[in-house]
Amino acid sequence: MKKIFLASLTAFLLLTFVAADGAPARGPVILATGRRDPRIYAIDFNAALRPQNNNTPRAIVSRSKVFPNRLDGTPVGDPANIVLSEDTRTAYVVNHHGAANNAEFLQHGGRGSISVMDVETMLRPEFDNTDRAVERNYDSGYFGAVGLLVLPTLLLVSHSENWLSEDGSNVIVLVDRKTGGRRGQIEMAPGHPPHACPTYPVPFASPTKPPAVPFEAPDPMFGCWPNPEFLAVGRGSDGRSYLFSGNAGTNDVAVMDLQRALSGFPVVEVAPRIPVQAGPFGIAASPDGKLIAVTARERAEVDREGNTISIIDVDRARTGAPDAEVARVRVGTDDPNGQTRPFTVAWTPDRRQIVVANFSANNVSIVDVSLALAHDSRAEVARIPVTRPQDPDGGVRPSRPKGTAVTADGRYAVVSGGPRLPPNAPPSGTVWVIDLRTRAVVATVTGVGNDPYGLTIVETR
């Protein structure tokens, strides 16, 4: 009996060591964007939950470059968002500024790109720190690419910037999934701020001079351009699908007819925009498509961050109802004037809760949807601090949570974050796993990129 026990223990320890040391994961895998570190990090979900791997990078299985190195050997890319294909075999990665060297490109308005990557190759340790998973790279069609939706034959890519500036975009590009070719674009209406805006035709007509726009925020001249960030698709009771964008430049949410856009019409907004507290970044549809959750991240015209999320009713929004924003919930702070900079949102599969990453508050909120819709002040039912382990020099940097995702069973939330460090610094990003039953952090994975943004979960393979 003793021999059997020792043999079983040895086998268990060996299995634990292999999984933690980068063996191919057999269960769920987290794919996290490294952002300033131009790689995608594959993290073994089950290995991350093992206590011996907590606060270490041992659950990382592999890191995949999003571009081949530059000819001088420099890694390039700026991965900010990642979305899986329907069969989870392909990952589409948005490079915010394309094939940029983050140590050299120190401004806004780089040309965006999409890296098309094979998921199975991304999970193989023998291809760690290589570009073997990259199948092709597409031009995204404009500047400052960020939002991405995967449709059956097309990618919808939103662009939040203009050439070498943070302001000046009204473009969502339709890209062919097979060829990478540009199939069309959505052109959004300009904003209507209190100050004058440059004359600019929508849809675009040539010749038109490029408008003068602010180089970066904050600037009082913001408000002329929507600068769309993340995207979501809602379902109306009329049987149609509606595209929603969170607009960082105009502090509102746009409602667009998706079918018309897919038929080639460039101007497809169907209702007045919905004002929110501050310029949105993250936006996501509920599992049934009837509600849209959106963050109020920051205002671009003034130096002010938001502290709320809004919930929008799709049917009310598409018909232009003034009460389309059916709930607004303060997150991350009890102070009405507190600045928490909510970054992204993720719904639980049962539509009952919304997970919110609060960048400036260094915490994660859980919002009860029923309480929010009832305008109950207790709708934020949990506020969970996320922390980073101590650095070698004894300091503890802020966590700065950004990306959010929820497992298919609704049990766990996964959150990415970490402060932005110089481009050549050691990987400093962090991924936290939160148990939504106990509402506590149950795993922390370190060494995940530099200033990581978006992430996703590969559930089954």
TrEMBL record:
Highest taxon above the source species: Bacteria
UniProt entry keywords in alphabetical sequence: Signal
Signal peptide limits: 1-22
Coiled-coil ranges from the UniProt annotation: none
Record-linked SUPFAM superfamilies: C-terminal (heme d1) domain of cytochrome cd1-nitrite reductase (SSF51004)
Positions of region (Disordered): 386-405
Cross-referenced PANTHER family: DIHYDRO-HEME D1 DEHYDROGENASE, PROTEIN NIRF
Name this polypeptide is given: YncE family protein
Organism of provenance: Candidatus Segetimicrobium genomatis
